[in-house]
Each structure stands twice: as C-alpha cells, then as structure tokens.
Amino acid sequence: QVQLVESGGGLVQAGGSLRLSCAASRSIFRINVMGWYRQAPGKQRDLVATITRSGNTNYADSVKGRFTISRDGARDTVSLQMNSLKIEDTAVYYCVAVATTSYWGQGTQVTVSA
C-alpha cells in the first residue's frame, strides 16, 4: 500500500504557473504508472497526465504543450508543472499510483482566475 500527499495547489491568475507535487509514503520504483487527474465541480474525474517507470508520458489534449509531468525516484515524488494556466484548468487535482490496484491522494485545489 502507498499513501500519496499532494501539495502546491492554490490561486493563480490566467497565464500563470503552478507546480504540483505528490509525495509517496514508500518507494515508487516498482510502481509502473503514476499520474495526475483532475475533477472540476459537477464533472467527472479526468486524466491530466501519466508517466511510466521508463519515463514515457501521456497527456490530455487540453494540456499538451502547457503541462509537464515528471517523477523523481530518489525522492519518491511525482510533479506536474503547469504553465499558461487557463480558467478551465480550475479543478481539484489528484495524484494516482497504479500498481496491482490504484492509490489516490486526497487532492489539491487549483483555482485559475481571470
């Protein structure tokens, strides 16, 4: 089992940047896929980005070219650098670790204002 704790959310103006971090309670070395999802009010939870152990990444079309996911095995963290933020990026962002089951963090709020 692994606990995930997100941080780095907050309020930012459109066009600004935020960096989210997800700290795992144990080594993520053997966890093949880690990623970020987000959920806006009244909407389903959607994929933002994933990264595999080998460093292969996948992004939602809506964030390609603006967001970058990375993982640090030495620190057991996964990060999401978010640039050129838009109002529609406002959501609760969740970190996920996919092993034999999926583990979720508690989420961190990102609010982008005009």
Written description of the protein model:
The chain is mostly beta strands. 0% of the residues lie in helices and 54% in strands. It is built from no helices and 11 strands. Strands 2, 4, 5, 6, 9, 10 and 11 form a 7-stranded mixed β-sheet that branches. The model has no long low-confidence stretch (mean pLDDT 95).
Which regions have little confidence, pLDDT < 50, spanning 5+ residues?
Answer: none
Based on helices, strands and strand pairing, what is the structural class? mainly beta
CA-based shape: globular
* SSE string, helices as H and strands as E: EEEEEEEEEEE
In short:
This protein has 114 residues and is mainly β. Helices cover 0% and strands 54% of the residues.
Defining traits:
0% helix, single chain, 54% strand, 114 residues, 7-stranded mixed sheet, mainly beta, globular
Secondary structure topology:
Layout: E1 4-7, E2 10-13, E3 18-24, E4 33-39, E5 45-52, E6 57-59, E7 67-72, E8 77-82, E9 91-98, E10 102-104, E11 108-113
Parallel strand pairs: 2-11
Antiparallel strand pairs: 1-3, 3-8, 4-5, 4-9, 5-6, 7-8, 9-10, 9-11
